[in-house]
Amino acid sequence: MNLDKAFAYIDANQQRLIDELIHFLQIPSISAHKEHDADVAAALDYDRRKLESLGFMTEVWPTRAHAGLFAERHVSNDLPTVLIYGHVDVQPVDPLNLWTSPPFEPRIADGKIWARGADDNKGQHYAQIVGVEAALRGGGELPANVKFIIEADEEHDGEAMAAVLPKHREKLACDVFVVSDSNFPDRDHPAITLSLRGIQALEVTITGASGDKHSGEWGGILYEPIDVLRWVLQNLKDFETGRVLVPGFYDDVDAPTPATRAAIAQRLWVDADVARAQGVKRLSHEVGYTPLESGTLRPTLQVNGIQGGYTGEGFKTVIGNQARAKISMRLVPRQNPEKIFDSIERRIRELVGDKGTVAIHRFGAGLPFWSDPDSPYVQAGLRALTVAFGKPAIMLAMGGSIPFVPQLVQVTGASCVMMGFGLPEDNLHAPDENFPVANFLGGAKAAAAYLAEVGAMAGAAGRK
Amino acid sequence: MNLDKAFAYIDANQQRLIDELIHFLQIPSISAHKEHDADVAAALDYDRRKLESLGFMTEVWPTRAHAGLFAERHVSNDLPTVLIYGHVDVQPVDPLNLWTSPPFEPRIADGKIWARGADDNKGQHYAQIVGVEAALRGGGELPANVKFIIEADEEHDGEAMAAVLPKHREKLACDVFVVSDSNFPDRDHPAITLSLRGIQALEVTITGASGDKHSGEWGGILYEPIDVLRWVLQNLKDFETGRVLVPGFYDDVDAPTPATRAAIAQRLWVDADVARAQGVKRLSHEVGYTPLESGTLRPTLQVNGIQGGYTGEGFKTVIGNQARAKISMRLVPRQNPEKIFDSIERRIRELVGDKGTVAIHRFGAGLPFWSDPDSPYVQAGLRALTVAFGKPAIMLAMGGSIPFVPQLVQVTGASCVMMGFGLPEDNLHAPDENFPVANFLGGAKAAAAYLAEVGAMAGAAGRK
């Protein structure tokens, strides 16, 4: 393919491509709300018809929730295969009164498209579709085989599509899997996201005496659930070093390589500036790591919620008979969420002993994921972003979890490149979500360039 | 006076005295509810008229809330003076549907009077009034000068009456001050309560970043208010020893004397039985003290409420930007609530440092109070209870706080004897409050016997 022609195609068709995205964004495909079921299906159909117009074979894959879409354009057995991910469903829009304009009436202002889903994830994956269109129309044929897997329940039952992946293993076969569901750190630095942390969440409930007790009468005599809980928590993480104290927690932890530490240090990140922006006096960190590393390349433990006793106005001298905490651990390769859950559960039960009754509920888990910064697929992504945006691309690590990514990596055995086009200020999951027009069009160019890069690797790296 | 005659008077007038209490209990004197203001005044008037019928001079003392009552029958400058305390107001009655019969329609069943206020405190202080009546009618004249101080806002603004005490200092002058607002440990052991703990309550709020943050993105980077809070808590009390870690906390603490430890050990208290009754596997205690001592004679710290982050159904990967805890400390002589508050406030601020923003709100305080088990007034109380109930009386320590008691001790400089007639199962502040008829009538006999005991001390101990 001819990349210049593909870029020229995008420039020439700019208004029509933006209009297509706007139509897409007009569909209120809120997967969490039953009354929008038809809209979610319509959004999936919008992608399906578009991809069919580009010569893709499509299939709708039922799941326990909203069905997803699979699409494929096979060019040649001699070319590598790129699998592209996206999701058509969006978050709810409450509180509606905080939106400057209605969430499903997209408008363009200040160089941005304002609408629910503009970034997450309609805008981001539609940029990929447009990139494929440009590669095709600008070059005559695609430089690689291309497949799409598109979810329609990511914002609601996040695991519905993942659950059906294993049974489609053969169809999903690919050399590299591309996800556009992440950010640049700022508008001047296009970026590849190198890693995601895994997650294991749980809730601990500690019960004491049969009912609330008067704290004057019983203070000093009864073990107090709040007290037992805070003691459990202090034994799960050392506050001063930031080290998790659960036995075996670090056993399977891969230390980040010097290359990875160097790669993520490319990012413009000044602790004092970040602290100021977050409204705090200083940042925390795990001993031996920078705050940025602690929040991305290192595992950690958070208490996401805590409650016990009397929490209303004024004061009640009560010993509440229950206290609970919601806890999540962020994991890195090769920590296994199930094994980690078993360790923390055992430790909590051991700590509580006969000082109370403990109930532990396991919430969802996600696997961690790391790319190798030296991977040819990552390097290809950096080159594609650089040429598309005209600025040198960098590498990032992400502290959050996208469980679908490592699951698809597991099913396909392929490399994964997270090439997202968003910005931190796009207001994901919030009122006034937006996506810069330049990132939509630049993203489309990067998607086309990436296909060209991967296509060119066929000769050099050979087929898997 | 002739005690046998006084007891015979109570026996002979039993039904009429119970009927008087029942009429008193029919008045819905809920001080917390504005619409019952007239009822509260009517209840106070009920006591006033009764005491006037017994030849008492009465005065109504205005306070910032409901007015209280002062009454006095002066017999002779050569006799000691006993000041008796009570309150006519009662707790609200919600939830009404849990009452077996309407709270202000007293009925007698299973040997108990069932009604709101039956024990707390109408029944208990009316027993004292009946005791005075019996001493007078059975003996011709009272064996001591007697004064009453009766609150009408104890269950609402608990400090309204205390606030006016200093300006009535001269009128309140007495040798001993008697409070019937406590319990026997069980129906077989009439008891004097030797001590009350003081209290200092506060709320700590820790604020982190400007708004809730995604715990994937920021976990490991930001100090988390819940985490800072549990670290503060772990530095305020050592979980394993039960020792409070606030600097200086124990500086002014009086160790209980061997006599006091021995006195409270008279109480039937088997740790394993108490644990079973409370629905727990074992009791806690401060190192070096029994659970009973830890809950009565030793100071301690409780977290009465804690809240932070997401506490609803399911899970949210959020770092809440605020966490708060309600904390109370129970104090013993000679700890000073104000000094203790200053120490804990200083320590909390030092611990939080620049890891968050801290706000500390001081709630109410109460002074601690201890009687000497060897005091002649306490010994007189034990004899009075023993003769009235026909069972040997013992001594107790109480873990809770009744701020009015040490305040009145401070104002009068008098001894205090806590001679309550309730039982642990009387359902104070709860549905189906009740008071055994035997405890009402026995309490009246004990009150009469106590006046005889104190009157007899005049010659031996002399006037103060």
Which CATH class of the largest domain in chain A is shown? Alpha Beta
Shape of chain A: globular
Q: Could you report the average pLDDT of chain A, rounded to the nearest whole number?
A: 95
Q: Kindly state the number of beta strands of chain A.
A: 19
Which oligomeric form is depicted?
homodimer
Using only C-alpha atoms, the radius of gyration of chain A works out to 24 Å
Number of domains of chain A: 2
Provide the spatial order of strands within the biggest beta sheet of chain A: 1-2-6-3-7-18
Beta-sheet strand percentage of chain A? 15-25%
Annotated CATH homologous superfamily of the largest domain in chain A = Zn peptidases
Total DSSP helices of chain A:
14
The unreliable regions of chain A are: 460-464
Q: How helix-rich are the residues of chain A, as a percent range?
A: 25-40%
Largest chain-chain contact? A-B, 78 and 78 residues
